Each structure stands twice: as structure tokens, then as C-alpha cells.
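Q: My labmate handed me this sequence with no annotations at all. I'd like to see what the chain might look like in three dimensions before we decide whether it's worth expressing. Could you predict it?
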Amino acid sequence: MRCISNIAHVWNAPEEAAQRPNPVPRDTAAIERGQKLFEQFCANCHGKNGQGDGPLAAALNPRPVNLAERAGHHTDGDFAWKIANGRGVMPAFKNQLQENQIWDLTHYIQNLK
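A: Here is what I predict for the chain of 113 residues:
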């Protein structure tokens, strides 16, 4: 499942990364861990509910995406690769978060839909 967007510069993970399955079982505990990480690392830009309206969003170019709209339209692998590698003003978290934490974040983001 790939992102379909009307944005001129669609950002997709490499196909191999996008197709990578989430090795962390999706359960309430994983979603809760992901939520705590989201609040700590993502909400300032993406907003409390992932709608791209965090307190820092207006100052960013490009603006953070509405993750709640994109949940269910991207694979876990696509989200995980973007979280790990970042792009532009979106920082790369692969040196700040453990791999399982990145996968927990993907569970939380997918739960926003």
C-alpha cells in the first residue's frame, strides 16, 4: 500500500523499506508506548492528534503532514523508514530511538485513523 497524494513532491520510502513488516506485535501496550514517544518527539510539529497542527508547525516549511489523514494509507514500513531517516525539517530519529521504538510509533500513528 503506497501513499497517494496530490502534493507535488510525494515522499515515499524505498520499496524494500516500505514493504518491511512491523516486527513489533500490534497490541495496546505497543500503541501506548508509541503514544508516549509521539508526545515526546512528534507532537510539537505534528500536533497532539497528529493533524499537522503542533505549536511549531506554522514556522516550518514544508508544514508537517496530517498523519491522521495518512494513517491506513501508508505501510508501517513506509512510516518507520521516514521516522528513522527524516527529510528536510523532519529530523532523522534512527540515532535517538531504538528500532522497536520506531515500530511502536508506527503502531500509534496507524491508530490515529
